[in-house]
Amino acid sequence: MKRRDFVIGVISLCVAFFVFVIPFIFVVINAGKSAQEASQLDFSLPDRWLIWQNLIDVVKARDYALLLAYFNSIVITVGAIALLVIFGAMVGYVVQRRPNRATRIVYAVALSGLMIPPAVVPTIWVLQGLGLFKTLHGMILIQVAYGMGFTVLLFRSFIATIPRDLDEAAIIDGAKPWQIFFRVILPLLKPVTVTVIVVQSISIFNDFTHPLYYLPGAENITVQLTLYNFQSQYVSQMNLLFMNILLITIPPLIVFVFFNRQIVAGMTKGAVKG
């Protein structure tokens, strides 16, 4: 059995290396090449490393569009995560602690967001009617809507592991419902909250399609859309494109590496009891 586990572990590491590490090395190598060398798209080392020069060129491109994109992406990510954590925890608590027909319908509607694909054109009509199209706060609400189903699922599963005796003891002490949630339950949700923050922040920060549909305009550019800066019908600056990919990949990668254990703990603990 131990030998079998060892073989499976080695195979898993090899697969992970070829799927994740090799592409990252390829990006790093080509990010340090000249435009002519990078156009060959191979693993050969550059004659002269130009990482710093390529970095400066990427940051300065399109009047420092990358810096604006980072600002917009951070605003969208922070705003959406704050709303997801607060409302996702509230909905998950009510759905788990008060099982009735109404809460089952609410839970079904929340989970339907994981199965029903988004309708782009009707969503644009709604945003235009509300005056939220091409706005950062409209994009924040879109991210909240698309991420709420997964967030409620995690919070509900985790809250199921918290004994109801805590709620009953707080009621006996005279606590109101909102006090029970914010003072008793919410402090116990740290593991799953960290999981939601990390998973959803990486997803939102790396989102390409939703800002493309709902947030057009040069002033609303996000980090993933900056990839268009170095590609056109006639000219492609592959070295700057790979440097741009590297710059927008490193922050989520660092977050995932440092919070990997918390992600696993938050998702597995909630799976003990549904």
Straight-line N-to-C gap: 31 Å
Report the C-alpha radius of gyration, rounded: 23 Å
Number of domains: 1
Integer average pLDDT? 86
How large a portion of the residues is in β-strands, by DSSP E? Answer: under 5%
Percent of residues in helices comes to over 70%
Query: From N to C, what is the helix and strand string?
Result: HHHHHHHHHHHH
Q: How would you sum up the global shape?
A: globular
Biggest sheet layout:
none
Unreliable residue stretches: none
Annotation, overall tally of beta strands: 0
Please count the helical segments: 12
- SSE class: mainly alpha
Predict the CATH topology: MetI-like fold
CATH architecture: Orthogonal Bundle
Features:
plasmid; MetI-like fold; mainly alpha; 12 helices; 72% helix; transmembrane; 274 residues; Carbohydrate ABC transporter permease
What does this structure look like?
With 274 residues, this protein is mostly helical. It has a single domain, classed as Orthogonal Bundle (MetI-like fold), CATH 1.10.3720. The chain is 72% helix and 0% strand. The longest helix is centred in the first third of the chain and has 47 residues. The two termini are 31 Å apart. 32% of the residues are buried. The model has no long low-confidence stretch (mean pLDDT 86).
